[in-house]
Design goal:
By secondary structure, the chain is an alpha/beta fold. The chain contains eleven helices and five strands. The protein has a five-stranded parallel sheet with strand order 2-1-3-4-5, with helices on both faces. Helix 2 runs parallel beside helix 3 and helix 3 packs parallel to helix 4.
């Protein structure tokens, strides 16, 4: 069962998402919150698999709520998915840097929304290749990690290859096919890379891959 926490200051938005999720046999909405502070408290209480968090809210916004969740070791298994009305705006990369697993636009089609919840619950980043290119081309102007090149030297050649493919938006199965290895081995390479690079999830791995220069936007 995928446990979901809804965090949005608009009751109508929350009720709409709940209506979609409540009819699914493998998804359960465990709590709702109207701001990031309340959302953080409920995340600690319920330990959801997914926290759907609006990016713009009063009291504590979605970026700060994401940052606090990512910094709390008791919430390490919570995948934050940012909700936005605006698509690719200046806040999206900040949310990914803060620890979000990806983002969704609120006018997403219901079937795509449900698919996204399941994708995020598996630990995959909600970043299609086209979205990644737009993010990096538009907003990355300088490296987030000044020592990124040094850090990347910690990776083996196979781990670097796996990270490059993650940054291109490939799934574990697709990465396994490209590298001619098993999906389990591909997952192992990716997990080891995340551990060495001290990133929370695949979304942050994507950001670091681009910002470090391991992957260039025009090559994705």
């Amino acid at each position: 069962m995928i446990r979901v926490l809804l965090v949005d200051d608009q009751p109508l938005i929350r009720s709409g998402f709940r209506a979609l999720l409540d009819v699914e046999d493998d998804i359960e909405v465990v709590a709702e919150a109207a701001d990031g502070s309340e959302g953080l408290a409920l995340a600690r209480e319920h330990l959801p698999d997914i926290a759907l968090i609006d990016i713009r809210m009063p009291v504590v916004d979605g970026i700060e709520a994401t940052r606090r969740i990512a910094a709390d070791p008791t919430l390490a298994r919570v995948h934050v998915v940012i909700l936005t009305n605006y698509g690719l705006d200046e806040y999206v990369l900040d949310a990914l840097r803060a620890g979000a697993a990806g983002f969704l636009v609120k006018d997403i089609q219901p079937e795509d929304f449900l698919h996204a919840i399941r994708v995020a619950a598996r630990g995959d980043a909600l970043l299609a290749p086209s979205i990644t290119r737009k993010l990096i081309n538009r907003y990355v102007t300088q490296p987030l990690h000044p020592n990124a090149h040094t850090v990347l030297k910690l990776l083996t050649n196979r781990e670097r290859e796996a990270v490059t493919l993650v940054a291109q938006g490939l799934s574990n199965d697709q990465i396994a096919g490209r590298m001619m290895i098993s999906p389990m081995t591909a997952k192992t390479h990716i997990n080891r890379a995340m551990t060495k690079l001290h990133v929370r999830d695949r979304a942050q791995l994507v950001v670091l891959a681009y910002e470090s220069g391991l992957v260039a936007p025009h090559n994705s």
